[in-house]
Amino acid sequence: MKFTTDPDPLRYPIGQYDMATEPDAEQVQQNIVAIAALPLKLADLVQNWSDEQLDTPYRPGGWTVRQLIHHIADSHINAYQRTKLTLTEANPTIKPYDEALWAELPDSSLPIAPSLHLLTALHQRWVTMLHKLSGDELQRTYYHPGMQQSFTLAAMTGLYNWHGEHHFQHAYQLALRNGWL
Q: Which InterPro entries does this entry report, sorted A to Z (predicted)?
C-alpha cells in the first residue's frame, strides 16, 4: 500500500491511501490477508471495552469508537456488493453514500457485537471470493461517480486494506493515549 503523509495524525494515523497506485499480484494477496484478519483484530481490541470507552470519540470532533465499528461494517458491506457487481457487470456505476449521515442513524448506537459478528461473516464470504479471482478478474473495473473515475478490483483490495487499518488505528491510538491497553 502507498500512503500520503498527513499533517493530522489523529485523523489519518497511517496517512491517506493513494488510489493512483495499482497493486501487483503479491500486494493484492497481502491486501486480502489483511482484509481477512481485520474482524478478529478489531474484536480483540474492543470486545471488552465499556460503553464509556466505546462512546469516546477517537479525536475531537470525530466519531466514537462505536460509530467507527458500525461504519466499518457499513462500508465493507458496500465494498462486498461492489465486488460482486464488478464481477457480474461491465464497469458498473456504484452507488456512493453519505458515510457521515449513516453514522448518525439509530443503528449506530447499538452494541458493537452485531457489527463485529457481521464483519466476521461478511469477510469470510468476501475474502473467499477475492482469493479465487484470476488476474483478469482483478482487473475488472467499477465506476465511482463521485470521483469520476474507474477503479480495478485489485486497487479496491488496497483501499479496503487501508480502510480497515485506518479505522483500527483510530481505536488503537485512542486506547494508547488513554492507557486502555
A: DinB-like, DinB/YfiT-like, Put_metal_dep_hydrolase_YfiT
Residue 149, domain CATH: 1.20.120.450
What domain count does the chain have?
Answer: 1
Instruction: Tell me if 9 is assigned to some domain.
Output: no
Residue 134 grid cell: 484470476
| C-beta separation of 59 from 11 below 8 A | yes
Whole-angstrom distance, CA of residue 139 vs CA of residue 22:
10
Q: What is the pLDDT of residues 31-41, one digit of tens each?
A: 999 999 999 99
Domain span including residue 131: 24-178
Asked whether the beta carbons of 125 and 181 are under 8 A apart, the reply is no
Which cell numbers hold the place of 138?
482483478
